[in-house]
Amino acid sequence: NAGVTQTPKFQVLKTGQSMTLQCAQDMNHEYMSWYRQDPGMGLRLIHYSVGAGITDQGEVPNGYNVSRSTTEDFPLRLLSAAPSQTSVYFCASSLPGRPNEQFFGPGTRLTVL
Amino acid sequence: DAKTTQPTSMDCAEGRAANLPCNHSTISGNEYVYWYRQIHSQGPQYIIHGLKNNETNEMASLIITEDRKSSTLILPHATLRDTAVYYCIALNNNAGNMLTFGGGTRLMVKP
């Protein structure tokens, strides 16, 4: 199993640009989540999904969109990048009966200029 | 979610047991104690969790006091690769929980 994979590893955007961070898992996990981690800070939940076709907002959803058309993929879209979105983004997945035993991807380091 | 309190940092000699404490005095009856760690520049890694009984897996042991107000994560034979920030979180078992990591304990394993 590849586990949770994220692409790209690094990305630099200009203010106002849009992009999609990719996340995929091959463990047949129904639960998937997106977090951001700012320097020296803990994780903050952006959006999560409990299964294909179902998404919900976390603590900091503004400026981000998600969709879940398949069990495997959970892309995160930045609609119009802002410097405040400079962060490390982590995707995570878990089994339905174990929502808090999350497997994390390696992260995407995003810089918005 | 109950607030947790951990020491900011700890050192441990390689090969010795690392005992990481966590205080969660306001934990409610349906909240579990979860432990994660984050090695520098990597994603967080789930370690172990428990409700009231002590738990052990291939990575660590978790000792929860009888009143559930505190717990200790034990890495029985720490290695240099165990150097990381360790987070203790109290959560119920529902989807959509935020894994809100607080400050955590920065464990430095020294040769």
Structure overview:
The complex is a heterodimer of chains A (about 110) and B (about 110). Chain A has about 110 residues and is mainly β. Helix content of chain A is about 0%, strand content about 50%. In chain A, the strands form 2 sheets. In chain A, strands 2, 4, 5, 6, 9, 10 and 11 form a 7-stranded mixed beta sheet that branches. In chain A, a hairpin with a 2-residue loop joins strand 5 and strand 6. Chain B has about 110 residues and is mostly beta strands. Chain B is built from no helices and 9 strands. In chain B, strands 1-9-8-3-4 form a 5-stranded mixed beta sheet, with no helix packed on it. Chain B has a 4-stranded antiparallel beta sheet with strand order 2-7-6-5, with no helix packed on it. The termini of chain B are far apart. The model of chain B has no long low-confidence stretch (mean pLDDT about 90). At the A-B interface, strand 5 and strand 10 of A face strand 4 and strand 8 of B.
Could you list the spans of chain B in which at least 5 consecutive residues all have pLDDT below 50? Answer: none
- Assign an overall shape of chain B: globular
Strand content of chain A: over 45%
Tally the helices of chain B.
0
Please summarize what this structure is.
The complex is a heterodimer of chains A (113) and B (111). Chain A has 113 residues and is mainly β.
Task: Set down the secondary structure blueprint.
The complex is a heterodimer of chains A (113) and B (111).
Chain A: E1 4-7, E2 10-13, E3 19-25, E4 31-37, E5 43-51, E6 54-57, E7 64-66, E8 76-78, E9 87-94, E10 103-104, E11 108-112
Parallel strand pairs in A: 2-11
Antiparallel strand pairs in A: 1-3, 3-8, 4-5, 4-9, 5-6, 7-8, 9-10, 9-11
Chain B: E1 9-13, E2 18-23, E3 32-38, E4 45-50, E5 55-56, E6 61-64, E7 70-75, E8 84-91, E9 105-110
Parallel strand pairs in B: 1-9
Antiparallel strand pairs in B: 2-7, 3-4, 3-8, 5-6, 6-7, 8-9
Which characteristics define this entry?
heterodimer, A: 113 residues, mainly beta, four-stranded antiparallel sheet, 50% strand, B: 111 residues, 9 strands
